[in-house]
Amino acid sequence: MPLHDISYKHWHGLRLGVWRRRAAIAKNGLSACLQVRWMMNLVVLCWGLGLAAAAILFLVGQLLVDDSAVSQWVATFVNPLASSLAKNLTSWLKDHPEISVSSAQNVLFYYLGLWLMRVSIFALGPIIPLLITRDLACNAIVIYSSKAVTRGDYLLGKFATVFGFLALTWLGPVCASWILGNLLAPDWSFFWHARVALENILIYGLISMAVLSVLALGVSASSANAKSTTALWFTWWILGAVIEPIALHTSPWLRHLGFGFDINQIALHCFRVGENLTVAQKEIPFLDHIRPDTIAALNSPQLTGTVLALTVMIAAAVWIILQRVKPE
Amino acid sequence: MSAQPVIETQALSKVFGNQKALDAVSVAVAPGAIGLLGPNGAGKTTFIKCLLQLQPITSGSAKLLGREVGAEGREIRKRVGYTPELDCHIPGMAGCEYVTYCAQLCGLPFQAARQRAHEMLDYVGMGQERYRKIDTYSTGMKQRLKLAQAIVHDPEIVFLDEPANGLDPKGQAQILELVQNLWRAYGITVVLSSHMLADVEQICEQIIIIARGRVLVHDSLANLKARRRGSAEVVVAGRHEDLQAACARRQWPCELLPSGHLKVAHGSPSLNPLLSLLDEIHLAPLEIIPSPNALEEAFIQALEISHAAP
Lengths: 328, 310
Description:
Number of helices of chain A: 14
Largest interface: A-B, 38 and 44 residues
Oligomer: heterodimer
Radius of gyration of chain B: 24 Å
Strand order of the largest sheet of chain B: 6-7-8-3-9-10
Strand content of chain A: under 5%
Distance between the termini of chain A: 42 Å
Strand content of chain B: 15-25%
Helix content of chain B: 25-40%
Distance between the termini of chain B: 35 Å
Shape of chain A: globular
C-alpha cells in the first residue's frame, strides 16, 4: 500500500507563456546534445582554443609595455638579442595601434573563428539526429503537436537548440577570448581599439550560426534514420571542402556548393582579413613573405555568390523541414 | 445533455485522396465519459486528430471546449490531453523526465512540472521504473506512461485512442478503471476511442458509433441499452406448431429459423407479453434470447458497413 496519497489532484498554478515553452524545448534539446559521448570534450577543446587565443592577446599586449615581465623573461631565459628586438617592436607597435590592436585582433579572431567553426561543424555531425530525426523516427512530433505548442514553436525550440550549441562551441569561446584578452591587456584603451574585432565577431558569428542552424535542421529533417542524417552532414561538408580547391581552376561557382566555403566568405567579408594584412604588410617588413595571391584570395570574398548559394540552401532546408515536420 | 457541449462539429469532413475519412459529421457532445466506438478504420482516430488539429479539416467546422478548432489551437491544446494509439515517446529519456517535459510543453514551470509528473506516475501505478529509459518499457508501462503524459497538465478533456491496446486482461482492467475515475471522481471529460464494445460499455455514459466516417448513433448508454426491437428467439424442445398457432392468433409474425429456434416479433420492448403467451399454451421454453439492444445493433451495423465493399 502506498505511503502517500496517489489520487489525482487538480493543478491550479499559473501557466507560463509560449516563450518559456520554446525555451523548454531548446533546453531539453541542448541537454540531450551534451549527453552525446565526447561532446563535453569537444566543448572543452573549443574553450581551450579560446583561452589560447586570449593568451596570445596577452603576449601581444605585453609587447607594448616597456620592460614588461614577458620581455624580461625573454631576455633572461631565451636570448638577450630577442629582448632588444622586442623593445624595437614595442616602440613600433606603439606608433601603430591600428595594426597592433585592431588588425591583430581581427586576424586572430578570424582564424580562431575559422578553427572553431570547423570543430563545431564536426560536432554537429553526431548531434544532428537528436534534433528532428529522432522525433520523426519515434512519432514524437505527434506528442509535441498535441501539447500547447505549434509547429513553429517546435521548430523555434529546435533552432535555439542548435544555435545554443554553436554559441557554446563557437561564439562563446571567441567572445570570452576577446573579453579575457583585453582584460589582460596593459591598458583599458585596448577595449576601445578592439571594438571593431568584437563587432565583426558578433556579425559573422550570429549570421553564420543562424545559417548553420537552419542547414543542420534541414539535414536532420531529411530522414528518420540517424545514420543517414549524420552521413549526409559529413558528406556535404567534406565534399564541399574537397571540391573547393579543384573548382577554383575549373568552375569557381561550384565552390559555393560547400557551406563551409560560403561561411568562410562571410568571415572574410566581416573581418576584412585581406585589407588588414595588406596594411600590415606595408608597415611590417617581416610580413613580406606572404604571397600576393594569398592576400588577393583573402581580399576579395565572393559575396554575391555566397549570398545566393546560402539563400538557396536555406530555402531548400526550410522546404524539407516544412514537408517533414507535420503532425502526421 | 443540457450542459454546454465540449465538442461541437458542423458537417465536419476529412478527405484523404479519394477516401472520405469523415463524412459531414455533426455532433454536439456534453461533458462526461464519451465512448467513440467503431471498427478499425471507421474514422475515430481521424475525428480526434481533426479536433486536436493534428489533421487539417477538409470542410465543415469544429469547436472544442467552446473554442474554434483551427483558430485557437495552442489555447485549446493547453486544456486538452491526448494519448495516441501508436507509441509516441522521445527516446533516451527516463519516464519521469518525459512526463515532466510534457508538462513543461503545456506551460507548467519546471518545479511544478516535476512534482506533477511524479504525482501522475503514482496515479497510473508506475513505480521505480519511472527512472528507467522509456526504450526499455513493456507495452503496459508505455500505455500507463501515455496516460500520465496526457493528464499531467490537468486537462479539462482527455482523448484516449485505444488506451488498452496490447494489454493483458488485468492491465486492461486497471487502465480502464483509471480512465473511468477521471470523469467519475475528478470531473475530467474522457473521450475513449475503441473498437471494443465491452470497454466502452464499461466506462462510458455517452456513445458515438462511427462507421465509414459517418456517425451512426449518438445517444446515452442508458437510452441505447433500453431500446430494443420487440422480438425474441424462443428455443423449445417441441410443439413448434402450437407456438406458431398462438402467435398467429395474436397476429405476431413468427418464423422458424434454420437453427430450429422460433423468432417471434411480439412488438414490445419487454418480454412479458411473450412470457404470458407461453404460459397460456403451457409451453416451457428451453431458452429465450431477446433481440440485441440498440447499442449492440448499431455496433453490428457499423461492423457490417465497414466490412462491406468500399
